[in-house]
Design goal:
The structure is a homodimer. By secondary structure, chain A is of the alpha/beta class. Chain A has eleven helices and eleven strands. Chain A has two domains: about 150 residues, 3-Layer(aba) Sandwich (Isopropylmalate Dehydrogenase), CATH 3.40.718; about 150 residues, Isopropylmalate Dehydrogenase.
């Protein structure tokens, strides 16, 4: 299996990308096609003694920056790692594409170059978020700011497919993020979406979920528009970071608290691991015709490696094919109504 | 000063409401008009030995439940504590109204009975939320699901007034909750609101704030529609609760961790206090012509007492009058454009 990896995307590129790639080659037996500034990659690999076995480097002369306007960047920077990588994926030169680069450019590029599955207008960014009982998939977690009810129904179908196929959850539950449990709650779009989800075939819809209950992790999939998803994803990270920061201050306060930290070390490590999004690696763009995985912008080697693992599972399970079958069933049911 | 208090609202009514009222009479020297089931109140007070000095009880025969449809409940339950209380406020029989009851009924009742300030379509629920550097005011935190840009500008003006007058913040900063720092981010409504806020007189607008930065508490006022505000408020509570729950498990794990807890006790207490919304008491409906304060549904005595303190400060500072002057200036500027 060949995974195409953007060597230039992310805050720690290319070093973390190289390290993650080398670990993935070793652990998962995949081949990597690494796109970016070849000279810089070879230099970093030599300096840090990272093996390039199983990694084929392809030089790209351009780079899409986080500040670039996504649609314009995809149109004009033809030799950037993102555009080259998505074209190689489309042409069958690799089985999946992984990047820690610009979410906007990946979203536009996935839509325009790789194209979308039948029944999907725009791919959704689907992030797995740690929670109390079990991690849940949040989609759309930031790609499509505004969404029609039909888009939300497609997200529900795709998220269920993913959690069943990739995460092995049985009959995954799906909830609609809303400001109250009752069907009458929320904006007109959400009220319509609620009704649509109730009759969507092949999903286990359990109703609305209120924001205060989202971190419990009682459901497998939380569906929302990309604006709300961005708030949920980033605020969860922000509040967790704030409290973990307060904890750190608490432990550093005096000799007694430092001693307490020593006694709690393994517990604190467990807590951090439970809250660690790096364990999940990346967020797939569900609805693209081939697997496109967005790794967190701050990814270190572990997150890159896990994003590659995620890509491998998507390919192994023919996730896109399965999802297309589920979406076709949804379309057939809608047409038959 | 006379504060009208809903004795029936909240999960712990009437006991916590009575206790909070008695404490407020003692600490702040206010008089309380307590509305609700008079017999039940007298019984609870006698049983728990709560002094009714300074508390005048007025019997109400009806009660608005959390499950009642708000507009219908306000129209039909004329002898409920919320409707009677808002009418007494309007008629000048008291200076402010405090309730831990149905947010929806209070919102509708404040609009229809007390009415709104000139330039305000609907009052906004304004909640003060604990954060890393300093607590911030979030409005609308749940009353108006959808908001036009002009409503968001009015929220900014009112939130600034409140933070300056009641919380004593100098030249309070205001930010618009959005999914990116750039002006071009967000929905069309948010992009329009951003432009409007840039030219709104009398406020210190500092641009968009991303959800991940909200818990830092770097700004004094965060403006958003009530749907987004509900997500921010409830998710902040939910994530904090999840992590504090994990901490508790960590402390209870074994003998060493229990010992660690003893060493950290004061630090943990500080952390809890910092995250404790009860300290702030309640959320005012900004934009109502007279002070209407919503206390949290789960309020205990301390939260009720603090909501009464908040009501007192609003009255002492003629908050509604100050706010009307600021709104009139905004309207004059808009008309002069």
């Amino acid at each position: 299996m060949k995974i195409i990896l953007d060597m230039m995307g992310g805050d720690n590129a290319p070093l973390s990308n190289l390290e993650g790639a080398a670990q993935a080659v070793k652990e998962y037996g995949v081949e990597i096609i690494g796109l970016g500034d070849e000279a810089a990659c070879r230099k970093a690999a030599a300096e840090k003694n990272i093996s390039l076995d199983g990694i084929q480097l392809v030089n790209c002369t351009e780079n899409i920056e986080m500040c670039d306007e996504p649609a314009r960047a995809v149109r004009t920077k033809k030799d950037s790692s993102i555009v080259v990588g998505l074209n190689m994926l489309k042409e069958g030169k690799g089985d999946a594409f992984v990047s820690a680069g610009s979410t906007g450019a990946l979203h536009v590029g996935a839509s325009l170059i790789v194209r979308t599955l039948r029944g999907v207008k725009r791919p959704a960014l689907a992030t797995i978020i740690p929670a109390k009982n079990k991690a849940y998939m949040l989609l759309d977690s930031g790609a499509n700011v505004e969404c029609r009810p039909e888009m939300l129904a497609a997200f529900a179908v795709m998220g269920s497919c993913y959690m069943a196929r990739v995460e092995g959850r049985k009959n995954p539950t799906v909830a609609l993020a809303n400001n109250g449990a009752e069907e009458s709650k929320g904006t007109p779009v959400l009220r319509e979406a609620h009704q649509l989800l109730k009759t969507t075939p092949g999903i286990n819809f359990v109703g609305n979920i209120e924001p205060r209950d989202v971190p419990n992790g009682d459901v497998d999939v939380v569906v929302c528009d990309g604006f709300t998803g961005n708030v949920i994803l980033k605020l969860t990270e922000g509040v967790a970071k704030m409290i973990l920061g307060m904890l750190k201050e608490m432990f550093m306060a005096n000799v007694g608290s430092k001693l307490a930290y020593l006694l709690l070390r393994s517990g604190v490590a467990d807590l951090k691991k439970k809250m660690d999004s790096e364990e999940y690696g990346g967020a797939p763009f569900l609805g693209a015709r081939q697997p496109v995985i967005k790794a967190h912008g701050s990814s270190k080697a572990k997150a890159i490696k896990n994003a590659i693992r995620q890509a491998k599972i998507c390919v192994d399970n023919d996730l896109c094919g399965t999802m297309q079958a589920a979406l076709d069933e949804l379309a057939a049911q809608s047409a038959g109504e």
